[in-house]
Design goal:
The protein is of the alpha/beta class and 313 residues long. The protein is 42% helix and 12% strand. The protein has 13 helices and 9 strands. The longest helix has 18 residues.
Length: 313
């Protein structure tokens, strides 16, 4: 999220096994026709659906508050109940992010984070977890500077499964979306309350993995969604696509996550986790012994809300 498995869980809640590492690559047929490809994201959402529940998608900013702690957080997230991990690519001008995630990106950049290191942290994560889907989320500028072809090759080689690039509309699919699909990566698009039925087909064209529905208008962390409207919005989107619909923006705790999980195929949480991390840092924004646990304890609580939502419907 803007606005991101191992047994390293350091908070309460059930542990979830990740499985032995095994790299996945698209088949020759899938490379020729990306729509034939089944990815870790597809598999995970199907597993959650088979369990009768929504998936929990968690966001973490790469390098916040430092690279070592960031990796420890990523490794601990699946054990706390995260089904999909979004990894933020730090950027100096994040137009869709609220103050919390903007500050997280700046902390990460100050600590030396870069796009190369973001790809590297996914590669390190994959050394112990071959099953949890990982999505890189951010903005096109760093990718453009890095080089699209090199970025896609490096990201795929590191074990990235998908991309969410918030400032590339469908009209710019040739820039990154289509090359990403040919490389075997899902390209996940955002829909908002202002995306009407006339615009929605264009948004969904070439979208894969899942659709990210932004439940409010505005930046991340800015407001609480109207839960009475989320169900209708999800139903409207699903009339246009068979893809899972994950809902984010405004998820704060187990209660708000459960309210969304009743209706959606996935629940995305980001700002609340970033705030929990920030509150665990010392006066100089350095990690403390409580930092990883501060994040995973909240993830475990939210995972409980997501997993129990439909049982109490």
């Amino acid at each position: 999220m803007f606005p991101i498995r191992s047994s390293g869980h350091s908070g309460p809640g059930k542990r979830y096994s990740s499985g032995a590492p095994r790299r996945q690559f698209p088949s020759r047929a899938a490379r020729a026709n990306p729509q034939l490809m089944t990815t870790r994201i597809d598999t995970r959402f199907a597993q959650c659906a088979a369990e009768g529940r929504a998936a929990l998608v968690t966001f973490a900013m790469c390098g916040d508050p430092d690279m070592a702690t960031s990796l420890n957080i990523l490794r601990a997230l699946p054990g706390a109940g995260a089904d999909v991990i979004e990894v933020g690519m730090p950027f100096t001008d994040p137009m869709a992010d609220g103050p919390s995630i903007q500050a997280a990106g700046l902390r990460a950049l100050k600590a030396g984070a870069s796009l190369k290191k973001t790809i590297g942290i996914v590669a390190d994560f994959r050394k112990t977890d071959a099953q949890t889907p990982v999505v890189l989320m951010g903005y096109y500028n760093p990718i453009y500077i890095y080089g699209v072809e090199k970025f896609l090759a490096d990201a795929r080689g590191a074990g990235v499964d998908g991309l969410i690039i918030v400032d590339l509309p469908p009209e710019e699919d040739a820039e990154l979306c289509l090359p990403a699909m040919r490389a075997g990566l899902n390209f996940i698009r955002l829909a908002t309350p202002t995306t009407d039925d006339k615009r929605l087909p264009a948004v969904l064209t070439n979208t894969s993995g899942f659709v990210y529905y932004v439940s409010i208008t505005g930046i991340t962390g800015a407001a609480i969604p109207d839960y009475s409207k989320v169900g209708a919005a999800v139903e409207r989107i699903k009339r246009h696509t068979p893809l899972p619909v994950a809902v984010g923006f405004g998820v704060k705790n187990a209660r708000t996550a459960a309210a969304i999980a009743v209706h959606a195929d996935g629940v995305v949480v980001g700002t609340a986790l970033i705030d929990a991390l920030k509150n665990s840092l010392d006066a100089n924004d350095n990690a403390t012994p409580a930092t990883v646990g501060a994040v995973t304890e909240l993830v475990a609580a939210i995972a409980g809300g997501v997993r129990g939502a439909r049982a109490t419907k």
